[in-house]
Design a protein that fits this description.
It comes from Streptomyces smaragdinus. This protein is an alpha+beta fold. The chain is built from 11 helices and 6 strands. It folds into 2 domains: 126 residues, Beta Polymerase, domain 2 (2-Layer Sandwich); 114 residues, Up-down Bundle (Four Helix Bundle (Hemerythrin (Met), subunit A)). 47% of the residues lie in helices and 14% in strands. Helix 6 runs antiparallel to helix 7, helix 6 packs antiparallel against helix 10 and helix 7 packs parallel to helix 10.
Length: 255
């Protein structure tokens, strides 16, 4: 048994016995049946609003396993670092936050694998109302956003802000991944387009994407490779081409 599977079992038992908890769901790789030794464990915990203030996130996570460190991340999720370098993501919220689940783009897993506890009966129908997987994005919008990030990265690199350009290159690469997935019909992991890319994309597509990666000192070469791949995908997806912009980007990026 994987360490993560044991932690999931402990979390499920804790959810079952915590009288303050109205509902709980598991999401992510293990809920989708794709978890492995490198995956996180991920839960939403919906507490009785009158008792949420009683809940100490660190103490709760310590009841799952010893916590090496606990951090509240940039989106308000508590991340516990468990022994063995296993990450656990836990959302501690009130039961009325269940209504917000209805606005998720997709479930990503079967309802029966996600629901850990549903004492009030509110959570299950909300999950059942969600699509299993997210709809792919609009090709024209994605192409435009790709060009936006590409030009930003080019400008800051030309200014000499190589680390900022390298940071923007990450957004360029993400949009290239989405465009490539659209082109190849490989949209299963749409919300996290890099997930499983090695096995889901064709060899030539993967090679082209790899060429658009770089360290900070090599960002100009990566941007040129990104534009070469992106401009081809733009045309092949049948998106209207702003030819004057293409010409300027060709000259700027050495195409």
């Amino acid at each position: 048994m994987l360490v993560q599977e044991e932690l999931i079992a402990r979390t499920r038992r804790l959810c079952a016995t915590d009288g303050r908890l109205d509902a709980a769901l598991m999401y992510g790789s293990f809920a989708a049946g794709e978890g492995d030794a490198y995956s996180d464990i991920e839960f939403w915990l919906f507490f009785d609003p009158a008792r949420l203030a009683e809940v100490d996130p660190r103490e709760w996570c310590e009841r799952v396993a010893p916590v090496r460190h606990l951090v509240l991340n940039e989106v308000g999720t508590y991340v516990a670092f468990f022994p063995g370098l296993v990450r656990g993501e836990f959302h501690f919220v009130a039961t009325d936050a269940i209504a917000g689940v209805a606005h998720w783009p997709a479930r990503g897993a079967a309802v029966e694998r996600m629901v850990v506890k549903d004492r009030t009966g509110e959570l299950t129908p909300v999950l059942e109302g969600l699509p299993d997987s997210a709809e792919e994005g609009d090709a024209e919008a994605l192409c435009g956003r790709f060009a936006n990030w590409l030009l930003l990265a080019h400008h800051v690199a030309a200014r000499g802000e190589l680390l900022r350009a390298w940071d923007a290159l990450g957004a360029v690469q993400r949009h290239l991944l989405w465009l490539t997935r659209l082109h190849e019909g490989a949209v299963r992991h749409w919300l996290t387009p890099s997930r499983g890319a090695e096995g889901e994309l064709s060899g030539p597509a993967y090679t082209a994407l790899a060429e658009a990666t770089a360290g900070a000192a090599d960002v100009d070469r990566a941007l040129a490779a990104a534009w070469r791949t992106g401009r081809a995908l733009w045309r092949e997806l049948g998106v209207p081409v702003p030819e004057e912009l293409f010409g300027e980007l060709d000259r700027a990026l050495g195409q």
